[in-house]
Amino acid sequence: IQAAPELMEVDEENGSESQASDDDDDDEDAQQSKGSTKTPKSHLQAISPLNFTSGEKELVLSPANIRDLIIPLFEHWVLNEDGSVHHELANDAIYAIGALGSVLPWTQYSSALNRYLGLVKKMPKLEKRLTRLILAFMDNFHFDLRQVKVDSQGRLLSNMVAPPTAATEPQQDDDGDDEEAEQEDAEQADAGIGAERASELQAERIHETIVHKLLPALRKKLSDTNDDNLALRAPVAMSVVRVLTALPPQTMTSQLPGILTTICNMLRSKAQSARNATRDTLVRIGRFLGPSYFGFIVKELMASLSRGPQMHILSYTIFVLLKEIVTISKVGDLDYTVEPIVGILMQDVFGIIADEKDAEGWTTKIKEAKVHHGADCFEML
């Protein structure tokens, strides 16, 4: 499943079912089904009993079978709380569930995602594992919503779809059946208006769910200042940005600054490790979005780091980001960012920041204030 989810043929119309067996792995499968702590030799070893081809005939699985039969097999390893499942096996199961998400239609995809969001509060011992599961599911978000018609603020132009109730807390139901039933009722109501318009309404409903429910929940997770969750900050940020790229440009433009502000504010932390992790996250986001969105990052950095020692952090962060962005930029790509960047660098080379660095006897615990990279940035520009 992890290696080639695109080879799975999903029958959304008649829900035909097929079965596959692998007698060679019966013993190993029995061991793993009992929660064996044996480490799999590879990602695919953990899921080898499931084959999606039988000779030359490709198997057809309905979305309901994937959700109700296959995914629960992997959840057995992910949701185990007694420590009997080896962490590598749990991670393999997480990746497999994420891959399965790439072939689920929106009704089943949303239902499963909503369920995992609800389980985070119900199973605090597994918070990190469940967060990784949610991120794996989101990394396989496969709904292209860029054609949804919205205004400059990312609001729907159509009034046929009401925004879902804003929620910063995920629903707490175990299976998401209520939400799935509502979505199925909406799809049935669309049946009489034509396939093209029904598809547009479905895309609009997905857009509203993402903007009003999923993104607020993930922003709250992103702003978590608990040091124990520091390692999850970058994956959460990347998942949010990936989902934003599937939305209309106007929606992305309106949502991205808020996400970047949340991340950039973390550079105010007194902990060096937190600042380093945040910079790494910004580098990954900058590389993913490319030069055309670099100006967004610079603008939010300037707003978040504007006084005192923060100016040293600002100039060093610009250097780190610029060093990465220039490797994927062509001549002229960063012209629109030159003015604000030069203003920052002038302070670093000739302004108060430079005076502090060169002052005799001046000491600081801020690592970023002990280096001079202004000239290097000018050279890169």
Could you characterize the architecture of this molecule?
The protein is an all-alpha fold and 381 residues long. The protein is built from 15 helices and 4 strands. The strands form 2 sheets. Strands 1-4 form a two-stranded parallel sheet. A hairpin with a 2-residue loop joins strand 2 and strand 3. Helix 8 runs parallel beside helix 10. 33% of the residues are buried.
Distance between the termini: 45 Å
Radius of gyration: 24 Å
- Separate helix tally: 15
Spell the H/E element sequence.
EHEEEHHHHHHHHHHHHHH
Largest sheet: 2 strands, parallel
Helix-and-strand structural type: mainly alpha
Q: What is the helix fraction of residues, given as a range?
A: 55-70%
Strand order of the largest sheet: 1-4
Mean pLDDT: 77
The parts where pLDDT drops under 50 for at least 5 residues are: 13-57, 166-175
The overall strand count is 4
The fraction of residues in strands falls at under 5%
Overall outline = globular
Properties at a glance:
381 residues; mainly alpha; two-stranded parallel sheet; two-stranded antiparallel ribbon; 4 strands; 56% helix
